[in-house]
Design goal:
single chain; about 500 residues; alpha/beta; Rossmann fold; 6-stranded mixed β-sheet; 18 helices; 24 strands; about 25% strand; globular
Length: about 500
């Protein structure tokens, strides 16, 4: 293995891009990119949503054919636009949305599409032997026969990496690999990435978490508006210089607001219980207040929001809205009738991707855009335009299909929807996941604005720094239970200490 690693580190670049460009109609996604990726290195691509990073990954993986230019892999020209040929060249992509089959065993998932057989029969013994060898190579211990659905997200991600190694991947493309992982799981993944690098595997990483990029990458390339701005060793960058290169200017952070004292209590929930997930939890939020739910992945934060929005059918507990006790919501429409709206963890679950941006915005109140019982195109556009005002959303794109928009713009559609039909309580679950630093600050700023307008907000983010930045109070969860309530001056260390205290 050491010889293999040395061979690939000295055999020239793993990837060479020569004047690569990609256009989708009149839209330039990537323009004239020339880049070399050193073999046996971790190379990070950073930039705002829509900067061209994912398009570049797609061209390497074979999902997208470039409009112009050439790609070389270990000195050989790559026939583009063909996933099988990219895989045959040793290029394998692992995307943010995992492709694990929960009902199959861990071993079966690793050999998905590349099973081993003998005389026409599956060779279970050979696959188990190979599976255990791959686990040993990567330094992990995952039972071969455990159903993949019973594994943590981190271990499921490891299965994806094992599958890539099984297919003899020499270049691994990782797209936002830590977005659903807790801090301990992230560090475990970083160890695996370092082990892959030590074994000669080249890793191309796309991430919006700049702290992680600076910690793990050997080299970093910054993209802006489809163009490569600069490539330099990680040691030549700071977080501030990366942000400035990504945006073309330094980002300014809004001063932290404080909820008005003595504001009326809007939401009070006591004894929240979801069997196997949440146990006897109480939550209260006042008008104009942002209460963050802190904790690790799997602590129950999302379950609390799902329960309050009527998505957890077995929820028990008592609920008061504006001091009046209400029946616990049993569906999202029932919750909305009570004034509770949810921005879901997966924005694709909150949007109809095949509908236009403006249709998605007014979806919660179509009546406001109707005339004589019929949807009015003029009113539809007027309502959507008013809802996105101040959201840095190009109104010329209101007629665009929502699925064609960047992640940041899709999140703005969800926020604009609840500006179009204001609720009393907004449940925001991971509203900045998978979007760039500039869009993140815009989203967080709009949440602050909504709170100033009197909305009561429950906020969840795996980025604990964000929870601290926007919250007036932080309720820490651990294994579905209350692990303590912290004030606005809490640190990440305080949250983690509380989360591990139970």
């Amino acid at each position: 293995m050491a010889a293999f690693a040395a061979q690939h580190r000295t055999a020239g670049p793993a990837v060479r891009l020569r004047n690569i460009g990609k256009r989708f109609g009149d839209t330039v996604a990537v323009e004239d990119v020339a880049l070399q990726i050193a073999a046996g290195s971790v190379h990070a691509l950073v930039g705002e949503n829509g900067a061209g990073k994912s398009t570049l990954l797609g061209m390497l993986a074979g999902r997208i054919a470039p409009t112009e230019g050439e790609i070389e892999v270990f000195g050989q020209s790559l026939q583009t636009g063909n996933v099988r040929l990219s895989r045959a060249a040793g290029v394998v992509a692992i995307y943010q949305e995992l492709t694990i089959v929960p009902g199959l065993s861990a071993c079966a998932n690793v050999f998905l599409g590349q099973t081993r057989s003998r005389f026409g029969f599956l060779s279970e013994r050979a696959m188990h032997h190979r599976f255990n060898g791959l686990c040993e190579r990567l330094g992990v211990a995952i039972p071969a026969d455990i159903p993949a659905g019973e594994l943590s997200v981190a271990d499921q991600q490891i299965l994806e990496i094992l599958r890539a190694l099984q297919s003899e991947a020499r270049i691994l493309l990782l797209d936002e690999p830590t977005s659903a992982l807790a801090p301990p799981e992230r560090e475990a993944l970083f160890r695996r990435i370092r082990e892959l690098r030590a074994n000669g595997v080249t890793v191309l990483l796309v991430s919006h978490n700049l702290d992680e990029v600076l910690a793990i990458a050997d080299d970093i390339s910054v993209f802006r508006d489809g163009c490569l701005v600069r490539t330099a060793p990680a040691t030549a960058w700071t977080k501030a210089s990366l942000v400035a290169a990504m945006l073309g200017h330094a980002v300014s952070h809004a001063a932290k607001r404080r909820a008005p004292k003595g504001a009326d209590l809007v939401l009070r929930a006591e004894g929240i219980t979801v069997p196997g997930k949440i146990e006897n939890l109480s939550v209260a939020v006042s008008a104009g207040e942002i209460v963050g739910l802190g904790g690790l992945v799997g602590s129950g934060r999302t379950t609390v929001l799902r329960a309050l929005s009527g998505l957890e059918q077995e929820t028990g507990g008592r609920l008061w809205i504006d001091g009046v006790e209400r029946r616990w919501p049993t569906s999202p429409s029932h919750a909305l009738d009570l004034g509770i709206a949810l921005i879901p963890e997966d924005r694709k679950q909150g949007l109809v991707l095949g509908m236009s941006a403006q249709e998605n915005i007014v979806l919660a109140d179509l009546g406001a855009a109707a005339s004589a019982g019929f949807l009015s195109e003029r009113r539809l556009r007027d309502c959507a335009s008013n809802a996105v005002r101040g959201y840095a959303f190009d109104r010329r794109r209101l007629s665009a299909v929502a699925g064609s928009l960047s992640g940041g713009n899709q999140q703005k559609l969800l926020l604009a929807r609840w500006r179009h039909r204001p609720p009393r309580i907004l449940l925001a679950d991971e509203p900045t996941r998978g979007i760039d630093v500039g869009a993140k600050e815009e989203i967080l700023s709009k949440l602050r604005d909504l709170a100033v307008s009197g909305l009561a907000i429950l906020f969840v983010s795996s980025e604990l720094e964000e929870v601290i930045a926007v919250s007036d109070r932080i309720l820490v969860l651990s294994a579905g239970r209350d692990a303590g309530c912290l004030n606005a001056e809490a640190s990440v260390a305080d949250i983690l200490a509380a989360a591990f205290s139970l």
